Amino acid sequence: MPSAYWNGQLIADSADTVVVEGNHYFPRECVDPALLTDSATTTWCPWKGTANYFTLVVDGERNPDAVWYYADPKPEAEMVRDRVAFWHGVEIRD
């Protein structure tokens, strides 16, 4: 089952991930909301739409914009709706 770790702490695990462009998108409910802080950062993907970000906070340490999601994905990317993906040092283990 894919799992996401940062700073030695389990952030998310689920047998229900969707892999898009090599990234595991975990169901949003798999991540403890206490670990996430809103970020003003957004980026644009031509086929998925606007990505929004969270800063990951574990034991007081911050990992800015390490979590991204598509709040309103384009129709061809509907499979990532209500899911989050990770980067910036977050380790994904299968």
TrEMBL record:
PANTHER family, sorted: DUF427 DOMAIN PROTEIN (AFU_ORTHOLOGUE AFUA_3G02220)
Superkingdom as given in the UniProt entry: Bacteria
Protein name: DUF427 domain-containing protein
Organism: Streptomyces tateyamensis
Pfam families: NTP_transf_9
Domain DUF427: 4-88
